[in-house]
């Protein structure tokens, strides 16, 4: 069974500890990108969480549905204005089915990596393909694995050293896995949290898409569609279901 790494303690502090990710400069381009792809159709967010993207997307008139493993994260979404109107299925997004089809499905903020096996990541693509209308799009936002910047012989890398949050990734290249260790200032104290990932290269994602009957329609360095290059540290990739 897939483990819920986003229980009550994480859900309670998620919005504060992910503060930068809620900034309009981060959220607005993602929402515009997804609204464009939705056209007049419906959107499905895998790992919808507390609604960082889903709520502003819904407020643009897009019908948004979600899947999430964590009832605690979804409870936060439901508390927010507009949250009650968003249907969320509680379950694993690699296997959980939702009624109807969607013109866009999306999985942002590195969350496909929360599936810690290749089989589960492939199953996720296959599950998305079953939910897409012909011509529909699946959008993934994920970091390029930062192995190039690991000093030789090292497996630990800090990715954030802010005043309210410190984050350290611990890589295991033998198993293609990493653990993100988070130290977040919450209230008067510090909270520690660890989340395991399977990191994955763009080319492997493309192959998973092909297994699921989807094809790469575009890859960008960010939500503003900057070109993806040798130096890009993340990518926004769009996979299309054939018409
Ligand atoms: C980093 S949060 C991202 C939440 C939201 N998408 C955002 O951008 O703020 C990851 C979310 O994905 C959910 N999640 C992780 N693995 C999952 C899985 N296998 N099935 C369903 N939800 C999952 C977690 O419960 C959590 O709410």
Descriptors for this entry?
243 residues; single chain; 2 domains; 4-stranded antiparallel β-sheet; 11 strands; alpha/beta; Rossmann fold
How do the helices and strands line up, and which of them pair or pack?
Layout: H1 8-17, H2 24-38, E1 42-46, H3 54-58, E2 63-68, H4 71-79, E3 87-90, E4 102-107, H5 118-131, E5 132-143, E6 156-161, E7 165-172, E8 177-186, E9 189-198, H6 202-211, E10 215-220, E11 234-240
Parallel strand pairs: 1-2, 1-4, 2-3, 4-5
Antiparallel strand pairs: 5-11, 6-7, 7-8, 8-9, 10-11
Bound molecules: S-adenosylmethionine.
Task: Explain the overall architecture.
- With 243 residues, the protein is α/β, with parallel strands linked by helices.
- The chain folds into 2 domains: 8-145 and 200-240, Vaccinia Virus protein VP39 (Rossmann fold); 148-192.
- Helix content is 26%, strand content 33%.
- It has 6 helices and 11 strands.
- The strands form 2 sheets. It has a 7-stranded mixed β-sheet. Strands 6-7-8-9 form a 4-stranded antiparallel β-sheet.
- Strand 4, helix 5 (118-131) and strand 5 form a beta-alpha-beta unit.
- The protein starts with 7 loop residues before the first helix and ends with a strand.
- The model has no long low-confidence stretch (mean pLDDT 95).
- The protein binds S-adenosylmethionine.
- S-adenosylmethionine binds next to strand 2.
């Amino acid at each position: 069974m897939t483990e819920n790494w986003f229980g009550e303690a994480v859900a309670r502090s998620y919005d504060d500890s992910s503060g930068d990710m809620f900034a309009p400069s981060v959220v607005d381009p993602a929402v515009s990108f997804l609204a464009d792809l939705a056209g007049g159709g419906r959107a499905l967010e895998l790992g919808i969480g507390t609604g960082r993207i889903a709520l502003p997307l819904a407020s643009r008139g897009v019908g948004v549905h979600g899947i999430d493993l964590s009832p605690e994260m979804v409870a936060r979404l439901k508390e927010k204005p507009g949250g009650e109107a968003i249907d969320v299925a509680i379950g694993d997004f690699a296997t959980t089915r939702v009624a109807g089809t969607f013109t866009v499905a999306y999985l942002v903020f590195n969350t496909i990596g929360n599936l810690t096996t290749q089989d589960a990541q492939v199953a996720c693509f296959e599950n998305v393909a079953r939910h897409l209308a012909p011509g529909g799009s699946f959008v993934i936002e994920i970091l390029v694995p930062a192995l190039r910047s690991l000093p030789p012989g090292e497996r630990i890398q800090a990715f954030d050293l802010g005043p309210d949050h410190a984050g350290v990734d611990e890589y295991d290249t033998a198993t293609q896995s990493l653990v993100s260790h988070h130290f977040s200032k919450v209230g008067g104290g510090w909270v520690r949290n660890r989340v395991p990932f399977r990191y994955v290269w763009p080319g492997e994602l493309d192959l998973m898409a092909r297994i699921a009957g989807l094809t790469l329609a575009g890859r960008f360095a960010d939500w503003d569609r900057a070109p993806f290059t040798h130096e890009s540290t993340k990518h926004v990739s769009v996979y299309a279901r054939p018409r």
